[in-house]
Each structure stands twice: as structure tokens, then as C-alpha cells.
Design brief:
Helix content: 10-25%
Radius of gyration: 29 Å
Shape: globular
Number of strands: 54
Distance between the termini: 88 Å
Largest sheet: 8 strands, parallel
Length: 993
Amino acid sequence: MKLKHFFTLLICLFVFLGCDFKDSLSSSNDILNSDSRTKYNFNLDWKFIQENPENAELANFNDESWSVISCPHTFNDVDTFDDYSLGHHDGEENQWRGTVWYRKHFKLPSSDKGKKVFIEFESVRQIADVYINGIHIGQNQTGFIPFGFDLTPYIKYGDKDNVIAVKVNNDRGNHFRDNFPLVWNHEHWHPTHGGIYRNVFLHVMNPLHITLPLYDNLKTVGTYVYAENISAENAEIFINTEIQNDTSVEKTIILEAQIIDNDGEIVKKVTTKKTFGIGEKYIVSMNTNLTNPNLWYTRHPYMYKVLTVIKDNNKIVDTYETPLGIRSFEFHKDKGFFNNGEYVKLHGWGQKPTNAWAGLGAALPDWLREHTFQLMDEAGGNFIRWGHCAGSPAEVTMGDKYGFVNLMPGVSGESEDEGETWDIRIAAFRDMIVYYRNHPSILIWEGGNWAESAAHYKEILEVINTFDPNGKRLMGNRRADVKTDSENYVSIEIGTEGWEREYPNLPIIESEYMREEAPRRIWDKYSPDDNFFSHPNIKKNTYKITSEEYAVRQVEHWWDKMGRKAYHVGGANWIFSDGTHGGRSQTEVTRASGEVDAVRLPKEAFYTTKAMWRPEPQVHIVGHWNYEEGTKKDIFVVSNTAAVKLYVNNNLIGEENIPESGYIYTFKDVEWEAGNIRAEGIIDDKVRTSQTKETAGQPVALKLTPITGPKGWQADGSDIALLDIEVLDAAGRRCPLATGRVNFTIEGPAIWRGGYNSGKENSTNHLFLDIEAGINRVAIRSLLKAGTVTITATKEGLPASKIELVSNSVALIHGLTTQQPQVCDKVLVNEPMPAHTPEIPEYIPGETNRSKLFTNFSYTGDGKAILRTNMHWGKKAYTDMEKNYTVVPQYLRGAEYIRTPNSDKGYWARDLLQFIAGTNMDIYVLHDDTVPRPQFLIEDFRDTGDDINVEKVKMSIFYRKAVKGESVIMAGNSDRDVSPNSRMYTVLAKKSK
């Protein structure tokens, strides 16, 4: 029996046996005689060269000397996470860029002749030119959106070899704004890891078939499934299936749809009949009712699937599976977010769709992407905003599975684009919606990462109304507030660090809050310094905070910006995992703004978000319990309980029942004693949870712990095995202050990929690595050859540790396998309601703008900026300093002004401060000229020659006019290093006479 037919039989039998006999849609004979489609995993056994040879697209080109690789693959896994961050949001520049080639040989059996053959790329970075047997069939340059081609006219069958060749280019211009037309292909946004970095599939199906949801090139939309009139008692299910008849005769078919529940049982079926002419493509619509449906909640994400089946003369000729989650939702401007009528505060992360990993780059197996999702779920997340391009198919499916509301973009940088760039963007937005519109976790389409013109907004909404007319999803653009055009089109405000809402009549969700940075390795100021404060670049850092401070600030930012605001939907912490995108700390090889580091080892911030956001009672003591004798320090405990008791060696230190920022319980000047520290979380006078941290002893051992996919380590050429290396004491406890080098040896069929050290250059891809805070993690990639791999780790003064890993063979015949990329086992969680919620102040709806001049005001810095009126001497200059204006020129008196935080003097963002002029107005900027003048000040303002003193600091006064309705955007104070004694600029305005 042919392998593909055997696999099809197994799948069909599984579906058949998983339901009651009397409820089966088809008889066993129908299933056994099925000539349905086959989906091949096309990832394995490609040839690759990091060059641009002539004629590499030709079928008879000699590629024997090329490297053998499997997808997902990137050619930048060896040259990333290896240079210090440049700071100033510039990302990592020193990566290889240029043109490379991939080639894959495969054969299809003669029995497939006459069938349709399609190839699907989940995406390629950045520009992909695809050839089949020497013929160019198309190009895609989105970098993040799935696309496909019809290979049928070019395929050879039987013993004849077919060759897919893909030319890939990941080059880019120097500055992202000049990187026309692909402005999003820049390390300012994403590390520019080139390659076929996501999955590739080959679909073989009957000429009479259900189309694929791949609009680009194919112009097909697949199946569209949605629910209406949803309640606990009933839901109406609509199924729209696009069918193509590529046979040479007219066909009258029966289309059946099965709704299959989470247990694999068929709970509903519906059928219809339709006649198709030769070459006709038509969308067939069906609908049915589902009684007592299981609804999709963020805390209980119940998933159905819809199996659509084409029967021709009572023979199954094609089937297709579509996800279905039944849910209602509401984003309310005054009350927040409701899922099936249940109030939910959304909290989670922004995440880059590259999801880059130290040692691996952006090319990850699906189960490893899911490992990141599992961590986000463990930390209490229920929301993800992909920035600023679409997430992968596997990850969007994980949003369905783990109950994460998705805010989903197409492709975007940070600009309103025109010409070819806009044409690519809007086409990508369309393709993204067609591909992802059936996923219940997507509740918001993001039109772009910047405001658009009215004409562009109309195009965005036309795409949504055409391809997702029944999704009821909202649409918003981040920074829509910079244009008055936006108000007529966006249906949700996507904010950025916004302290005040800019659209009183819209619901608001934050897309990027808490953008500070701190590496995992630096515990606190009382612990030994592991190359952080002593780092030669520390003075260049925008952020000079420890893991402890960073963890506590996670709570402060969440509560003050979103958590305590009853009207606020919630938001995305920026960002979950450290990566080489736009960092500001020049002591690091990453942007260290994640709750986990670049190999997904948790920081203390991971545990503080977990202590806030998990619904079960949580308590977390920030830090460790290994200090020098005589140490006294504040101990921070984060808990979602109503009170916390703290003990040292069973002696009560204190009890706190009034938390700061909703969740922080601070115990002042706690004296360290060897032994243990314990925190108890209390609700209704009962201890509901506790945590104990112990003093670890001297290091005596290394421990190696493997992490593999749920089906083990696959010998497919791209699967990854992770290996944790911990330093333990005699009691088996991790030594939290352990550092130092570990050396490795490896034997067997595998490629060592290593890990990284966050504060060292050139630490990747070596058979050695430093321990950080007692632990580190390395990765090992499989080959196509299965076998046993032996890894030995040694560290000076400790005995060696050895482990054996076995990679499992994958059946590969003529370049094809039906063994799909592995993901983790199906889960269906049913989380409780929150055990305790801090008191939230009452919200009284009303107009939030307090200024007739600075309308739609927003500030995206780390600190808080506020609007004030009636400027005169003696007024406070900054929100975070007791410094006052002294002598004020007459023409500035009585002005409205923006009180900025002085702590942001060294912070840079393009859109730091923004407003729309409420009337014709005179704008003044007070600027400390010991700081280099920012570009916006040089280009848009003139120096009046006047000065004003903020105590002993002289500020120059700059001036410009603005007309009513004009959008005024001011960047950060400086994108360079500033002196500790310098000052942040401030802004004033008066109505023009």
C-alpha cells in the first residue's frame, strides 16, 4: 500500500471510530474508497547555498555540493545575538544579507497524475522567487504572510524528478524609513533573519476540490465559518465553502459539513447539492443550528472543527478541516471587554512574529513556538499583539488553543505609506484576513502601525467587509490619534503607553506598554554584579535597572496604566521574549525587555506578572535568599491575594494588607539570615497560597535537563532539543549566584547550536557558555539521520555531567513525508474566576481631554506627562522633580503647557509626544541646549533667542505656529547619550491672536 494512501486511511479511520456508528456521515466503504487530498510536510531535505549562482533555477543544475538542510531554516542563525545592541532603537545590524538559493527534489507517483498540486509557504523572508522545474511561477515579498502556487501544469510523475527552487533575498536599506518599498524589513522592527523560516506544505487533491485560503497568486479563499445569534442555548453556524471544478466535465456534487466537538464526536451535520460547470469556481453556503453549544472563553477556549466533504457519485473526493470557536464579545468604551457576557481584563504581551531565539534565529519548529505560548499562559496571559506583522499559522492556532485574544496586523513598519509600499501592504492585509479569518482568537484587525489617510482607511475597511463581513471584529491602527481622519474609521483605540485616552467615544487597548529593559543575570543591587553595573558600556544604557526593579515596575506599569482603570480593556506588555530588535541598553546583545530571556528562561518579571494575572491565588517573593552577612534590604512580594505575611526562618517579619499598585507588598529593611524566607498569601483571613525560598549551599554538581517536543526529538533536519544546565548544591537546590564557564562535548548525529550570554559579544555557537544566575540553556539541532547523541558538560571544580538524547527517524520517500510538524498535546483548560481582585476606582464616563489646545494628546515615554494650564513663575516644571520655573517671559504667562517627566531626558521615540491642534496656536518648546537639539526642533521650530531658567538650568525657547486640526508630533529629547544633569524639554502653547 502506498504510504500516502495508508496515512489517509488511518486519518479516515480515526475520524470514523471517534464517533457513534449511527451518527457517521459516511459509511466505511465510502471512507475506504475515498480519493481525498494528501497534505505533505515539505520541510525535509532541501539543498541550500549562501551564494547567488547563475542558472540555479534550472531543473538539471548540479547542486550536489550544496548543504543539506530542512525547513524552517534561516541563514542568520550563526550571526545574531552576537553583537552588543547599538542602542537608540537601532537593533542588530551585523547580519549577513543578500541572495541565497534553496532547491528541493521530489517525486510524485503516477497515480497522482490528473490531480491538482499546490505548494504552500507559510512565509519566506524577505523576497522569494519560486521556480518549478526551471519555470518562474511567482514572487512574494511580504515576509510574514502565507502564500502558494499551483504547480499542476509543471509537475512530472512516476520516476521523473521535480525540482522546486527558491531564490531568497533579505537585503535592506540603511534606514527603515528609506527601505522602499519594504519598510518593515528592518532590524528596527524585526531581526532581518532571511530564509524559508516557516513551514512548507505540498497539497495534492482532486481536480474537484475545496480551495485553499491562499489569495495571493491563487485567488482562492477556502472556507469561511462563523456563528451568529450566540447564546448558551443555541448558535447558528454558517459555512461558506469555495469549490473549484477543474475536471473536464460538469459535476453535480453533495457537499456535507460535519461539526466535530473537542472530543472528536460529530455533533451536527448538514448537506446540500450543487452543480458545477467545467472550470467553475463557486462558494456554496450552508447553515445549521447547534444547541447548547460549548462557547470559546479566554479561560475555557473550547474549539470545534468543521469538516467539509465533497461527494461525487457518493464517493468522497475531497475533505477540508476548518477551526470553529463559538463566541460573542464586546469592547465597551466605559466598561471594558466582555467575552460571552463575562467581564475579562485582557493582559499579555506584544511579541515579534519572528519570535527569534538565541542560537536559532527566527527558524523554529512549531512545538518550540508553542513552548513560548505555554510560558505566556503560565504567566497568566490572555492577550497577544503581534508587532508589527502577522504571527505564524501555528501561533495563531495556539491563540485559539490557549485562549489568547489576538490583535492581528498584516505587514507594517511605522509610517503612512504610499505607492508600491501601500500596494504591497494592502494586498498582504487582504491575504492575511483570508488565511486567518476562521480563528476565534482574533478579535481585532490592526490596519497598520501608524495612522492612515481617509482613502487608506476606506481600503482597509473594504477588505474587511469583503473577506470577513461577518466576523464583527474591530479595526484599529496604532497611533491613529495622530490624524483627524482616523476618527471616522477606527472602531477601537490602539494606544501606546497612553496615560490618557485619546478617543472618549471608543474602547481602548494598549499595544506597547512597559518598554523598559533589564537582563536576567543581574538580581539586585545587593547581589554580586555579573557584568552589568561594571560593564564598560553601562553609561550608555537608557535603562540601568536590575531584575528586581524591572519585576516590580511590571506591576506598577500594569496597574497605573490599565489595571486600575475600569474602562480600560487591558494591553500588551512590550515584549515577552528578549530579542535583537531595537534595543536601548548597550550592555546587552538583546533588547532585554522580555519577561523571559532569548532562550526563554524566565526572569523575575515573569513571576511577578504571573502573581498578578493568574486567577488562582499567587504569591511571589522577588529575588533569591543568598546574601552576605549583615545585609538589610527591602523585600518585595507580589501577590493577587488581599494580604501577605512574611517570615524569616519561621519568625514573622510583618503583615501587609494595603498593597502598592494593586499587588506589591513591601517589607522594609529585612535583615538576611541563612535559612529560608516564606510569604503567605491571605484571602478572607485564610492562607490560600505560600512560597518559600531557601539559602542554597556551595555548588557541588551540574544538572542537565532535556526539553524536546511531545513526540520526542525528530530526525527531520530541523527539530530542536533544548538542554538546561544548572549548578546545584548538595540538597539539589539551584545556586542562584553561580556564574562561570561550562564546556561541552557532543558526539552523534546532531548540530550544536549552543546558547548565548546576554552581556557578552560573540558568545553564540560555541561549545562553551557562561552560567547566568545559576542556569543557562543550549539548543541542539537534529540531522536527517537518527541516532544517539551524547553531551558532556564540565565546569571547573565540579564533576562532569553526561546525558544521552535519541533522535527518532522520520519516514521520507522521494522527498515527501506525511508526518506533520509536531505540536504539543491538545489541552482544554477551564480556569476559575480570579480569586481576588484589587479594588478598582469607580469610573465616571466623560470627556477626558482637559485642554482646548492639546487635543488627542498622548505621550509614549516611560514616565507620566500631564496637561496643565496657566503657566507662570513658581509652577512645577516636571512630573517627577521638585523643580520650578523662575522668571517667565510675559508672552508665555497664562499658556497651557505639558509637564513632562525629567527621567525621559535620554529616552527616544519617534512619537514620544503628540497632539492635534485644537485651534490656531503658537507652540513653544523649552530645550536644554547641553543636549543636542533633536531633529524635529531643528526642522520645525526657530530659536527665539530667549531663555528661561528651571532653577539653575537654562532652557532655550523655540517657536512655531500650528493651524487648527494640524497633527504635531515630537520625538524624544535625544537619541544620543545625555548627561545626568541635563533636562527634558517641555511644551507650551497659546491660542494665536
